[in-house]
């Protein structure tokens, strides 16, 4: 009996209602799909169409092999039960990944489709686990964990959690779960198990590479690359919750210029609008936004404005959007999806009609005034209750397609800006999914707490996001919640975080600083309030001197940072890199979670524990390392104790590169 066949460039298996297809999908890469009692769909949630490949396919009666460059898949019928098992190998014949066997009398299924009402399935895909394997990527989870082996991760978005189902393995492969469904992944020591709570087919992509950089380049080719970062993305961004009127915005920008402190972007946060979904300035607080933006441009400062996808029931656009089916729909109950300053539904970013409608509003009220960069907040979106099974998009149920929302939100603005004649585009956004990078998404890590624990978590998050194909990433310097401006301990944390922020892809000061002041409009209605001052001169002279020093360090690095953005744009390389990304042959580098590389040349070791004035730093083998503070040179492959008084942090130059920094940090 012939179980296997070749169809164009793909290998096909059919048995007992299941169809499995393995196809070449980019250099050294394969895409695997399977469906039960359904035709396989060519639709791909994340993958772009690949360049044509010329695979080698070998057909046997009970085994078939497909080879595409450095990777090959062996599809074998097991003797007991005729269950198909797929194994993936590199060009050296080393096993990369293998589906679980059926276990004989256990009758296990590597690809388990459990029927749901309608034509969808609850899908479970199970793979044999190599206990020595180390796993990195998967987006952004708020945990102080670098190696994800042993972790259980929710495949869903929340405020400060961005689920991007791609990982890089220490075994020399990358894996994308090409499925936008809500689910889970369990990286156990016995099995790796992926679940999708509702889907039509199994779909994943795997690539083989000799180095993490090779794997990352293949993934960028498969899902897209960032545009080139505009020049104003390279310097310092000033932000707070919130500048609530026009004069505040201008006075802060003027003060930065008066003090001769470089400033690239100033950010106008949420509720500068009358109601969510109006997507315009509130004329009471911003009477002449065109003049404000013009003056900021003359000062050399770019204006960024906050956008929310929420549409208040009182918004001037709500009834039209409801009538035109442009809002997210609740499957049952009242369509209130977020309760914040009123009852809100979310605009449906997966609907092309919605994307056009919202962009036209934002073009008229923002872009036509000269605003070129947007802050796309609440991008998960942030349901008041994360009951994913209760909501539906144009693209399908949230259970089946929900994770694409932040990418389509970024797409809304990117495509509108491109049509508007803009080239290099960056928009700050609070969440992402596979492919978000190609729409100019600069992800920040959400509304995190102002604690050292959260600070350390962001270092891990930044490393993982870079490995997940998102090279543009940042945090709220100082954290977002519970930072008391007058607290000496918070000032110390802020300074240490500011130093870290200098060596992030984008350097942005933000937070909801306490104490908080309520704001009322002329009608006596309570508006969103404002935190206390959050500018670099707001925390005393010592903090001011340190922070302005690091803004100038950022300026010194502008050419270097630009070159890193070029690498991200052309090859998909992360800006913030795990040590093993550049030094994969050094086993210690695979376990370092509290230091990283800014590009290839700068090793950064943040001070991320309270009151610390020194720390241990590992210097990778294979290079010499110059202390940027003192000029002292160390050979790699050793731990050292590095001093770090309050005004500095350990930074080391690889083989003496970027030596203009010596004595400046």
Keyword list:
TIM Barrel; single chain; 12 helices; about 20% helix; eight-stranded parallel β-sheet; about 675 residues; Immunoglobulin-like; eight-stranded antiparallel β-sheet; about 30% strand
Compile the SSE list and pairings:
Blueprint (H helix, E strand, L loop, with lengths): L3 E4 L2 E6 L2 E7 L4 E8 L19 E4 L3 E6 L2 E7 L6 E7 L4 E4 L12 E5 L5 E8 L6 E6 L11 E4 L6 E8 L3 E5 L5 E5 L3 E9 L2 E7 L3 H12 L12 E3 L7 H13 L6 E4 L20 H10 L3 E6 L2 E3 L5 H6 L5 E2 L7 E2 L3 E4 L5 H14 L7 E4 L14 E3 L2 E2 H4 L3 H15 L7 E3 L11 E4 L7 H16 L5 E2 L8 E2 L3 H15 L4 E3 L3 E2 L1 E5 L5 E6 L9 H16 L1 H14 L4 E2 L1 H4 L13 E3 L3 E3 L9 E6 L4 E4 L5 E3 L2 E6 L7 E4 L11
Helix pairs in contact: 2-3, 5-7, 9-10
In short:
This protein has 665 residues and is α+β, with helices and mostly antiparallel strands. The chain has twelve helices and 44 strands.
Could you walk me through the main structural features you see in this protein, from its secondary elements to its overall organization?
This protein is of the alpha+beta class and 665 residues long. It folds into three domains: 4-223, Immunoglobulin-like (Sandwich), CATH 2.60.40; 237-309 and 351-383 and 401-570, Alpha-Beta Barrel (TIM Barrel); 578-661, Immunoglobulin-like. The protein is built from twelve helices and 44 strands. The strands form ten sheets. It has an eight-stranded antiparallel beta sheet with strand order 1-2-3-4-18-15-14-12. An eight-stranded parallel beta sheet has the order 31-30-29-26-21-20-19-33. The chain has a six-stranded antiparallel beta sheet with strand order 37-38-39-44-41-42. A hairpin with a 5-residue loop joins strand 41 and strand 42 (633-635). Helix 2 runs parallel beside helix 3 and helix 5 crosses helix 7. The protein starts with a strand and ends in an 11-residue tail after the last strand. The relative contact order is 0.10.
